Amino acid sequence: MSIKLEVKIREKGGVNQLRQAGLVPGVVYGHGSENLNVTVPRVSLEQTLKVAGENTMLELEIGDGKTKHVLIHDLQRDPVKELLNHVDFLEVRLDQKIKADVPLEFTGESAAVKELSGVLVRNIQHIEVEALPQNLPHNIEVDISRLKTFEDRVTAADLKVGSDVKILSKPDAIIALVVPPRSEEELEALKTEVVEDVSKVEGVVKPEAPAEGEAAEKETKEKESGSKKE
After folding, report:
1. SS3 of residue 229 by DSSP
2. Fewer CB within 10 Å, N side or C side of the chain?
3. How many Cβ atoms sit within 10 Å of the Cβ of residue 157?
4. Does residue 203 belong to any structural domain of this protein?
5. Range of the domain at 122
């Protein structure tokens, strides 16, 4: 599976003006080829991400009939506006397998959650696979309906993928499970505030106030010392 995305070659510099014009600067690299600076309309890139995600092969149309098969290797967003402001494309070969992290999509309904009031724990959100670029799945479904009791587990061995995709995680790696709900005693304990005595904190010594007699004696000595200096 590949999705086409049109880009244009750009000169170095002036990236702020490009971003203000609704364009995302990017770079294409890989396989010993010279880095290629490009721009892509932000709207087109966002739409492509919704359809393909970050691990589906893209077919970049550069112009003059030239195309490159790539994966999105890195995305950067503005920390305030959250708009895409840079993209890295990794060029790939169709005859060479690659490794990639594929997101997991949890589907179905767990009886341990619905009937036993358990809490679903998604232990892994992505899983590493190996495949040819054109065979990389957009996502992998995790059926949680097999979680009927608190002892049940969904492991990497339970994931359904095609014969052209290899899961690299250990077969017994736990993907999801359901844990029992907290008891009333545990919930109550969570609400209890623990007030720490600063004098007991390591490295902190709480000064002690001098006794009344000691304070008076100290004051007298200070006055006598002052008189001698005069």
Report:
1. helix
2. C
3. 12
4. no
5. 99-186
> Which alpha helices (H) appear in the chain, and where do they start and end?
15-20, 42-52, 111-114, 184-191, 212-229
Examine residue 198 and state whether it is found in any structural domain, yes or no: no
Rounded to whole angstroms, the Cα distance separating 65 from 103 reads: 33
Quick one: tokens of 95? 């005859």
- Rounded to whole angstroms, the Cα distance separating 199 from 206 reads 5
Beta-carbon count within 10 A of 39 CB: 21
What is d(CA 11, CA 39) in angstroms, rounded to the nearest whole number?
Answer: 10
Encoding tokens for residue 209?
């106030």
Asked if residue 48 is part of any domain, the answer here is: yes
Of 141, 172, 152, 156, which Cα lies nearest the Cα of 112? Answer: 152
Q: How many domains does the chain have?
A: 2
Q: Which of 79, 94, 96 has the alpha carbon at shortest distance from 134?
A: 94
